[in-house]
Amino acid sequence: MATMRMLLFLAIFYSAGICMISSVTDPNDAAVLLSLKNSWQNTPPSWDKSNDPCDSRWEGVTCNNSRVSGLELSNTSLKGKLYGDIGGLTELRFLNLSFNPGLTGPLSPRLGNLTNLNILFNGEIPDELGNLAELSFLALNSNNFSGAIPPSLGKLSKLYWLDLADNQLTGTIPISTYRSPGLDLLLKAKHFHLNKNQLSGFIPAKLFSSKMALIHLLFDGNRFTGTIPVTLGLIRTLEVLDLSNNSFDPSEAPLWFSTLPSLTTLAVEFGSLQGVVPEKLFSLPNLQLVKLKYNAFNDMLNMSDSINPQLQLVDLQNNQISRISVRQLFGNPVCSSSSGASNATFCQPPHQTTKS
Ligand SMILES: *[C@@H]1O[C@H](CO)[C@@H](O)[C@H](O)[C@H]1NC(C)=O
Ligand SMILES: *[C@@H]1O[C@H](CO)[C@@H](O)[C@H](O)[C@H]1NC(C)=O
Ligand SMILES: *[C@@H]1O[C@H](CO)[C@@H](O)[C@H](O)[C@H]1NC(C)=O
Ligand SMILES: *[C@@H]1O[C@H](CO)[C@@H](O)[C@H](O)[C@H]1NC(C)=O
Ligand SMILES: *[C@@H]1O[C@H](CO)[C@@H](O)[C@H](O)[C@H]1NC(C)=O
Ligand SMILES: *[C@@H]1O[C@H](CO)[C@@H](O)[C@H](O)[C@H]1NC(C)=O
Ligand SMILES: *[C@@H]1O[C@H](CO)[C@@H](O)[C@H](O)[C@H]1NC(C)=O
Ligand SMILES: *[C@@H]1O[C@H](CO)[C@@H](O)[C@H](O)[C@H]1NC(C)=O
Prior knowledge:
This protein is mostly beta strands. The chain contains two helices and 22 strands. The chain starts with a helix and ends in a 30-residue tail after the last strand.
């Protein structure tokens, strides 16, 4: 009798085992996605086919060896909360939730009916994203996130792309302390897109170091104050830098204006820069676009020294420049007919100097 019972038990156990085996997705990952699905509106129709995201190929979900490795759900009209449980997708490498303005965070479904706790509805980026240790791509731009940037994002040591642009984020940029991580630890990151938010305070000098690999730094359209830290000049890899539309203190052009060797685009529009535009800026070897309108640059604009021929645009509208020295540029690529500069004074053919 006891044996019989044992056999029955084994049989049940076995069929339960079969059940587990026929489920392709890692049970923990499946549980996270199912709870996301339950808390979101407008998920793709394929998400209703089964409870096994990897097996039935839920749209926007990428799997690798039964683990969820990517979520590409950008611009899908998703509505709801991005809550902390997503931090349980520990093999996630790619997360693109950009352009879903109905998406905010975080509210754990476990908190279910505690809707009176308004503080939970403040739409912050969940701290638990910092648990996604494998994440290399994180795009939460153009949503409705508010609150501060969680310092925990500094734990994403494999991250190469951080895009939080075009949200309602406030507070300062988190940097590491002995007890807390910060964005200065993201040494693999090539992209910091924090533009179009309401971030404030000084840009911390500690944010930048020569160990970083940043190529795009977009901080425009925030409320940063103070001066632009000199440590920015340590990032030799930097190609595109935009600090426009902030509230910096008046200052002369920083030294790194003339020393960042890879810079292709420099934008500090509606800034507080004053003094003379450094003439060496225009000889940076890769520089193409210089956008410095609405500052307080004054005195002479000197573009007489060796000007890098790739330069396409120098926009200095609405400064205080009173004198200009521009060398003849006729015959350079910058003056080719496809370039907007072809009609500029410095692109006109030289005057005939030979006497007739
Ligand atoms: C799949 O995961 C393994 C580790 O489990 C990793 O080595 C491999 O690079 C991953 N493949 C892809 C395409 O992400
Ligand atoms: C993320 O989604 C946006 C919006 O659909 C798209 O423009 C962007 O290319 C995506 N990024 C990647 C790396 O796929
Ligand atoms: C989002 O989708 C709409 C409609 O499909 C499309 O017109 C728009 O260009 C997309 N936006 C982005 C940023 O991909
Ligand atoms: C964005 O959040 C605000 C509150 O923070 C809310 O009033 C607004 O409706 C949200 N926008 C969308 C598109 O959901
Ligand atoms: C949440 O509220 C609904 C209706 O108000 C109720 O039926 C349900 O049991 C509640 N859930 C929890 C977890 O308290
Ligand atoms: C800066 O603000 C101006 C006017 O408010 C706007 O037209 C421009 O697009 C903004 N530029 C950037 C780079 O944020
Ligand atoms: C412009 O700068 C160059 C290089 O620094 C210098 O030699 C030249 O005298 C300057 N021109 C004027 C008009 O100041
Ligand atoms: C340059 O001037 C010519 C003649 O005035 C005009 O047709 C052309 O559109 C101008 N090109 C640019 C890039 O402004």
